[in-house]
């Protein structure tokens, strides 16, 4: 199928805009790759340190093979810890990868670990103010791990919210090396997500106690694996397939299953085949071009993915010399039908989505509709068409066969010509309040336009207190400011969702406008988020007063204050000194001081 003209035009605009930065990036990557295997630049003392703990003796073991550069050496970068359910399965991956590499005639070493925090634990807590910056810390830590310069390719073990974007930024920076991203899969389905959400709303209204809330939460998050709603973690996994950095069909296979183990083995083996020592050299820099990012944007829109990826994709692209803008997200959304309904955009979880046909079904249909670039480099060694296949077990190993062509549940998954909506549901918002983004795929149509007086807050606890006091039981637009990267690290504000949802259920129109983030689980509450410039940078959002008339118009993509004198007002910033200490926030002052704008990825290291 010929490429859709709209997708073609968007790609051309990105290519033209990125020409200078992409050429500079690729020149650097080619220069690094031309120097051959990295170990060749280490002297004897360097190499002795690097291989001292490897098994066997020099003559017959792995050490001699590494020195002779006869065999690939795969670096493992792991985000393992056993507090994150999604990352707990990674505990045993290094030994499994090393065994698979040996079987393939190669070696593997754990190059280093990177931090991985759980936004579910820190939601609504002070620790969330470190969350976005952890993406940059992960990129930096990966840089340290790979700086030993002894690897021919890398395996990146990470899943959750900031971990995959941080690893991609680093993989792009070391783009002369091949790299494969290795997932662990979602936990089996537990309490249905809508029941969990109802319990949270009931708790917010005081209808139930904490014991009932805890019982519900523990029934939802109950075992190893990714949370099963379609938030940022699972959006990350989708993205890695659409961008060709996973093996096909790897994203949503449950942990601890034979197929999951076989896919990990296959990733290790494939990482040995795509090095510069063989005939299939596939460095990450060749994968992460403008076409791959457009494919990722299409996947994000077609699945109704996380708003956090608006920040992360821009930052990831910049690391590979590609210049994305919020307008690109808007344009791709307009061209891409919403093919999936997964919670919070529907009742199904990712296991139901996977069973209904999942990513192979979607990629196959989007390719047929001309909405994806097929002619891209991938770790599978073929174009994106390989990702319309699904993995099966065959005598303990993986083989791929054509993916499903029919949806097994049309309440969850539909083809483009019969999609749930004509556009993807993410929309750029512009106006005198600045530049932001909204996600409307789960928002009722009658809430797409709201004009109401502002109720202004400087922290989310004050919003919750106002809700409990009944002050939000009216049509209003909650303006929550000083939540941007420079003010307090741009925490997610998902903890507000239950309270604001209750206001909607009571029949009032309410929206949120903020320079902060919502969760990847942003749901039924209309929200204009990531507003830039942020309040601390002098954005107009800092000048809003209680009672000002605000217009939120997702149909036209407009956020504006309707008061004629708003531009002339002076800004008096609140005292934000308390944001600078406690739970390690002291260590991140340099990050807050140097953070970029949210519409530029809110990055520190790029």
UniProtKB/TrEMBL annotation:
Keywords: 4Fe-4S, Carbohydrate metabolism, Gluconate utilization, Iron, Iron-sulfur, Lyase, Metal-binding. Binds 1 [4Fe-4S] cluster. Residues 72-385 form the Dihydroxy-acid/6-phosphogluconate dehydratase N-terminal domain. Its cofactor is [4Fe-4S] cluster. Its EC number is 4.2.1.12. Residues 411-602 form the Dihydroxy-acid/6-phosphogluconate dehydratase C-terminal domain. InterPro entries: 6-phosphgluc_deHydtase, Dihydro-acid_dehy_C, DiOHA_6PGluconate_deHydtase_CS, ILV_EDD_C, ILV_EDD_N, IlvD/EDD_N, Thiosulphate_STrfase_CS. Pathway: Carbohydrate metabolism; Entner-Doudoroff pathway. PROSITE patterns: ILVD_EDD_1 (PS00886), ILVD_EDD_2 (PS00887), RHODANESE_1 (PS00380). GO terms for molecular function: phosphogluconate dehydratase activity. The keyword Repeat does not apply. Belongs to the IlvD/Edd family. NCBIfam families: edd. This is Phosphogluconate dehydratase. It comes from Jannaschia ovalis.
């Amino acid at each position: 199928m010929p490429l859709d003209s709209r997708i073609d035009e968007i790609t051309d605009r990105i290519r033209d805009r990125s020409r200078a930065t992409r050429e500079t990036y690729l020149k650097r990557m080619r220069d690094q790759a031309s120097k051959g295997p990295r170990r060749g630049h280490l002297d004897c003392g360097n190499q002795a340190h690097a291989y001292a703990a490897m098994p066997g003796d020099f003559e017959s073991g792995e050490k001699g093979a590494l020195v002779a550069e006869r065999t690939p050496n795969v670096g493992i970068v792991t985000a393992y810890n056993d507090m994150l359910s999604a990352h707990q399965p990674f505990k045993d991956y290094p030994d499994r990868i090393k065994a698979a590499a040996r079987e393939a005639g190669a070696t593997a070493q754990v190059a280093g670990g990177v931090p991985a925090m759980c936004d579910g634990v820190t939601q609504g807590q002070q620790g969330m103010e470190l969350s976005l910056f952890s993406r940059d810390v992960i990129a930096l830590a990966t840089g340290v791990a790979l700086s030993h310069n002894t690897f021919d390719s890398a395996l990146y073990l990470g899943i959750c919210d900031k971990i995959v974007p941080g690893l991609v930024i680093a993989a792009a920076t070391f783009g002369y090396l091949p790299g494969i991203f290795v997932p662990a899969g979602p936990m089996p389905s537990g309490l249905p997500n809508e029941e969990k959400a109802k319990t949270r709303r009931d708790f917010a209204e005081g209808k139930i106690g904490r014991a009932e809330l805890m019982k519900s939460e523990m029934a939802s998050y109950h075992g190893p694996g990714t949370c099963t709603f379609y938030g940022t973690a699972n959006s990350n996994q989708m993205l890695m397939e659409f961008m060709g950095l996973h093996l096909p069909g790897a994203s949503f296979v449950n942990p601890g299953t034979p197929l999951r183990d076989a896919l990990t083995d296959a990733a290790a083996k494939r990482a040995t085949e795509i090095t510069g020592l063989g005939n299939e050299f596939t460095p990450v820099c060749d994968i992460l071009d403008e076409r791959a990012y457009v494919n990722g944007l299409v996947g994000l829109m077609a699945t109704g993915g996380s708003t956090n990826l608006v920040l992360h994709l821009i930052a990831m692209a910049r690391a590979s010399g590609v210049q994305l803008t919020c307008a690109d997200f808007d344009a791709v959304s307009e061209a891409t039908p919403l093919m999936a309904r997964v919670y919070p955009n529907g009742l199904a979880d990712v296991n139901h989505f996977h069973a209904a046909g999942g990513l192979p079904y979607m990629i196959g249909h989007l390719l047929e509709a001309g909405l994806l670039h097929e002619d891209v480099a991938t770790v599978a060694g073929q174009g994106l068409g390989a990702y319309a296949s699904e993995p099966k077990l065959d005598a303990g190993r993986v083989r791929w066969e054509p993916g499903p062509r029919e949806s097994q549940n049309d309440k969850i998954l539909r083809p483009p010509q019969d999609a749930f909506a004509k556009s993807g549901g993410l929309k750029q918002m512009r106006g005198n309040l600045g530049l932001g983004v909204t996600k409307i795929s789960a928002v009722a149509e009658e809430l797409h336009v709201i004009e109401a007086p502002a109720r202004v807050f400087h922290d989310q606890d004050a919003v919750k207190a106002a809700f409990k006091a009944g002050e939000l039981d009216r049509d209003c637009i909650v303006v929550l400011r000083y939540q941007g990267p420079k003010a307090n690290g741009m925490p997610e504000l998902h903890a507000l969702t239950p309270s604001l949802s209750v206001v909607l259920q009571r029949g009032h129109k309410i929206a949120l406008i903020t320079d902060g983030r919502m969760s990847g689980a942003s749901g039924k509450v209309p929200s204009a988020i990531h507003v830039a410039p942020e309040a601390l940078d002098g954005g107009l959002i800092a000048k809003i007063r209680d009672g000002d008339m605000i217009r939120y118009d997702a149909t036209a993509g407009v956020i504006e204050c309707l008061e004629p004198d708003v531009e002339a007002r002076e800004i008096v910033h609140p005292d934000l000194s308390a944001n600078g200490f406690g739970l390690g926030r002291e260590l991140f002052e340099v990050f807050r001081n140097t953070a970029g704008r949210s519409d530029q990825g809110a990055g520190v290291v790029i």
